[in-house]
Amino acid sequence: MQSYPDTRLYIDGGWRDTARHLPVINPATEVQIGRVAHAGIADLDDALAAAERGFARWRRTPPRDRADIMLRAAALLRDRQEEIARDITAEHGKPLAQARLEVIRGCEFLEWDAGEAVRTYGRVIPSAPGVRYMVHHEPVGVVLGLSPWNFPMSQPCRKVAGALASGCAIILKAAEETPAGAMHIAQAFHDAGLPPGVLNLVFGDPAEISGHLIAQEPVRLVAFTGSTAVGQHLTTLASQHMTRVLMELGGHAPVIVCKDTDVEAAARSCAIRKYRNAGQVCTSPTRFFVHAGLFDRFLEIFTAQAEATVVGDGMANGTEMGPVANDRRMPALLDLVEDACAEGARLCTGGGRIGETGYFMAPTVLAHVPDSARIMREEPFGPVAVINPVPSLDAAIAQANAVPYGLAAYGFSDRAADIDRMTSELEAGNLSFNTLEASLPETPFGGVKSSGYGREGGTEGLHNYMNVKNVSHSMTIV
């Protein structure tokens, strides 16, 4: 079996170690498997200077050439899929099959944005004779990309893809708990011939890194994926310097199950997706509002599927759900379950830790959860589902919208009128009906309300990384 790599910083086209390191823990065994370099202020300043030089070169690189390098890097990552997936499973805990799929999804982000790099069209606005009004799209500058631990490969890829395709340079601060995915991305771009300084990778103290770099004038965009609380803090820091932000923040996704749907198929599909990545997905279906006439059957099937989920080490054959990713998640989840039960919720299955080694939590189902329970307002970000009956679609929509989040929402119905109503009235940036797929490279992804603003992916994805310049040209001096 391959050994997990120690992770260094990647600055100005080269790898560097540091005097300080942070441990990387396998969440299935609680054993340290590696170390990650801890950047100091001098390292951050070097990364910023390198990014400035890289941007000056990269912005003048023809879009087709930028796209070619991105596609070469994606091809290398595809070739290294197995090695990367094993590192992701070791550091994060997710089943190996899911880690393999994550590598491919990261490559798809790079490939899609590489195609968009050559389509950042401007336009000519009709004008009087002798005058031209033109709109140009230009890269914003140096980007500070901050990616989370729940998808160690695909989330960093998404930040890198948008920045590089638009002609920006990026300093990527990836998660210290799961550093290997970002390390593989940097190595692939290095091997693909990316000029020095265009992509820089740092790890360390998150508050120190963000506080130092956001204050620097060359940083023109902060692109962050993570919790709403941290996103609000970063937005406040950025506002002090009039720095733009792209925020993909927390969710608390509702699922509405209407009376006219295949309840058995919906319940199985929902349960399988709920426990993917141990529920540690910002778009994870969490609050299920089921028509009262289908509620008992939905709950029965969902609970049975939850109990049948194979929980174990992600490297083991047949594992369907691994551990939660770090030691902070377990007490937070158990506290939410305890609070819900104290408020009168029914614990249908799970609710506790599995074993004494590893951060394994049983797939959990709570039913008849009152609005007073914290879990109705707070995203669990773990393998806990809330299933409540509702008397009508009106009630379901009201419950779905009753939180400050609006990242993803789902509905199951065979009636076009119900789908139309949910499309119009649900407050979310991403809606999916009769499917739980919320994010694809070719579709714009982002939230409303406290789930952030800006979009990644789709034809809209590069807009956040670019400035709009209006040019007025008179053929004579007036």
Strand-helix topology:
Layout: E1 9-11, E2 14-16, E3 21-26, E4 31-37, H1 41-58, H2 63-79, H3 81-92, H4 96-117, E5 123-125, E6 131-139, E7 142-146, H5 154-166, E8 169-173, H6 180-192, E9 199-202, H7 206-214, E10 219-225, H8 228-239, E11 244-248, E12 253-257, H9 263-274, E13 285-291, H10 292-308, H11 329-342, E14 346-349, E15 364-367, E16 384-390, H12 393-400, E17 405-406, E18 408-412, H13 416-425, E19 430-433, E20 448-449, E21 452-453, E22 466-474
Parallel strand pairs: 7-8, 7-10, 8-9, 10-11, 12-13, 12-18, 13-16, 15-16, 18-19
Antiparallel strand pairs: 1-2, 3-4, 5-6, 6-22, 11-21, 14-15, 17-20
Condensed summary:
The protein is α/β, with parallel strands linked by helices and 478 residues long. The chain is built from 13 helices and 22 strands. The protein folds into two domains: 9-249 and 451-470, Aldehyde Dehydrogenase, Chain A, domain 1 (3-Layer(aba) Sandwich); 253-440, Aldehyde Dehydrogenase, Chain A, domain 2, CATH 3.40.309.10.
